[in-house]
Amino acid sequence: MENPFSLSGKRILVTGASSGIGRQIAISCSQMGAQVVITGRDRERLKQTLEMLDKSALVGHQAVQAELTNAAERETLVAALDGKPLNGVVHSAGISRLSPVRMFTEQHLREVQAINVDAPMLLTQALLKRNLVAPEGSLVFVASIAAHIGVAGVGAYSGTKAALIAMMRCLAMEVVKRRIRANCLSPALVETPLLEATATMVGSMEQERNNYPLGFGKPDDVANAAIFLLSNASRWITGTTLVMDGGLTIS
Ligand SMILES: NC(=O)c1ccc[n+]([C@@H]2O[C@H](COP(=O)([O-])OP(=O)(O)OC[C@H]3O[C@@H](n4cnc5c(N)ncnc54)[C@H](OP(=O)(O)O)[C@@H]3O)[C@@H](O)[C@H]2O)c1
Asked: What are the tens digits of pLDDT across the range 54-82?
């Protein structure tokens, strides 16, 4: 019997693949049989991810360095696909900058918006314009629990993730005629370098950990959900957001 969760024969682009959640999604996709195109800014970390990919499916993986807030570099990434359509795209690249509304600057707002919302949407646009998303393809955007709840100091970031979810819903309606699907994942705290940076900023996350009946998430937890959304197992699911939070919001 065919495994509906398999990604065998699929070509998948993962942004933010040089670290954290994006890196694990790329690794897990390769383990599920996909050919993976990875992208990130840091050449060395991107190379490390490339080395970590499962090569047993005998398909060539590809790494493309790109600063995704830069239009020319997004074009370089699209050109590197060489006209071969993708069956899935995971937009994981993003940043978190903490500041109360009273304190943030216009530049702060623009920076978070540029990578968390504008870049994934403009990259998606570039791919769709060139027919580089195959029919029945799956677009997955990594949003955040921050889009669903109020946490002091997280306003700018929360706003970008809420915008991402809202845009994803409209996009899902636009691409459904080609049976392309679009969905978001909304994780709460996941143990990655981004969380370590936040912990350094606020002192410690140990008190916050007590609010999670199932503990903080691991990159694997998000990767497994991404695999589901990329695979044929989710062929009837579009326009949705999966909240994954270890019980944070029911506790
Ligand atoms: N960790 C959490 O607790 C958590 C919770 C909810 C949602 N998320 C979301 O999950 C996603 C991944 O987060 P993470 O925890 O894996 O963070 P991370 O470990 O800091 O990784 C962030 C990734 O985004 C890339 N990136 C950042 N800015 C970029 C830019 N301008 N152009 C291209 N690539 C860029 C980084 O590339 P370089 O390595 O090259 O800099 C890196 O690969 C983000 O969208 C984040 O908002 C995270």
From this structure: 999 888 999 999 999 999 999 999 999 99
